[in-house]
Amino acid sequence: MIKKRVTEVTQGMILGKTIYGDNYEILLKKGVKLTSTYIDILKKRGFLNVFIEDKNTEDIVIEDPISDKIRMMATKDILKVYETTRNSLVNIEAETQEGIIKCIHTKIKKNFLESPAFNQLIKHIHYFLEEVLSHDLLSGLNSIKSVDNYTYEHSVDSAVISLVLAKKLCLSDVKMKQLAIGEFLHDIGKIFVNEKILNKPDILTPEEYDLIKQHTVYGYELLRDNDNIGLISAHIPYQHHERQDGKGYPRGLIGANKVNNNKITYEEHGKLIMVAEIATIADVYDACISDRPFRPGIPPDIVYDLIKKEAGTHFNKELTDAFLSIIPKYPIGSEISIKNGLYKGFTGYVMSVSEENILRPKIKIMHDKKNNPIKPMDIDLRYDNRMEIECVRYY
């Protein structure tokens, strides 16, 4: 099974993974033979990629870290919490940051924390944790995000990344749960920001950018002072746009670039906490590799190098090192191109990755430099140090 651009899908291809609609009803079921009508539906619904099965790639097994059942459960829970909170804003007319924060504490927070939607999300967290924490390595993130539900699906995938990294760092079960809740709701403060600004296709003015940056404060104010989830969960929305060099927002905090798994007391204000630093890496990685209406996802090898380059300035250096040890530069199913040697310009797919040598996957070459099909060739790059590859770019 491989991931393919919808623009490159042709009639007769077999769908490898079920596609769900806006309300998570089945849109197209796994195993269906794609017709021109089905392909048009996918394009109109804004899907840029799908998974395809064929005989030549049946030995490429792409596993999602969570099942469809758990993924849908988590995404629906987040969606309901957003909807419930958004419905509380109907009679809110505050425009300044101070006015909105006052409304959060006087009119919105109590209903939010007592809502069935929020309590269901908390109740379901352990099912999510159980599945994610059975993985030590992320062979790739394999969700197909829809345009309308991007925010919720991004929150789920960010939580997956964060938790696998947290497991690597041996965080406690309590912190794992708080991390998951904080990641699920890390962008909830955006519901207090004008949608026209959030969805503006053009470059934001400095004033508009300042308004968007306030979502971190709103999310924190909404979640804090809740004994059921703790301050860790609230600090993830608050700090996930901070940077190690102090150039982030909302407070310009400076990081220590160290792994710190000590007990967190919050006695000292103005400190970056490690779970929020984890969330920062996860948020940027998933946002970059994900397809958006205005651009296709950035190839994972480019994102991998970007995060590595920004370690120490944007991202916590020691956390980044741990992250790069559990996320493949070339995820399973990625389309790759050979950069040098006899097969320069030939293309294929990543078949598998090894935890022992995560940078040298096993690949299957399937097309020559003119994109003509060839007899598939399997090459294990662990035993070929000369061949270099890169993920195929679509822009």
Q: Helix share of residues?
A: 40-55%
Q: State the strand order across the main sheet.
A: 9-8-7-6-10
Low-confidence stretches: 264-268
- Gyration radius (Cα, Å) is 22 Å
Tally of contiguous helical segments: 13
C-alpha geometry: globular
One letter per element, helices H and strands E, the order comes to EEEEHEHHHHHHHHHHHHEEEEE
Question: How is this structure best described in words?
Answer:
Helix 2 (68-87) packs antiparallel against helix 4 (116-132), helix 9 (215-223) runs antiparallel to helix 10 and helix 10 crosses helix 11 (274-289). The chain has helices at 36-44, 68-87, 97-114, 116-132, 150-168, 173-184, 195-198, 206-213, 215-223, 230-239, 274-289, 300-309, 317-324; strands at 2-5, 14-15, 19-20, 26-28, 49-53, 335-338, 347-354, 357-367, 373-380, 389-391. The protein is globular. Mean pLDDT is 89; it is low at 264-268. The strands form three sheets. The chain has a five-stranded antiparallel beta sheet. Strands 1-5-2 form a three-stranded antiparallel beta sheet, with no helix packed on it. With 395 residues, it is α+β, with helices and mostly antiparallel strands. The chain starts with a strand and ends with a strand. The longest helix has 20 residues, at 68-87.
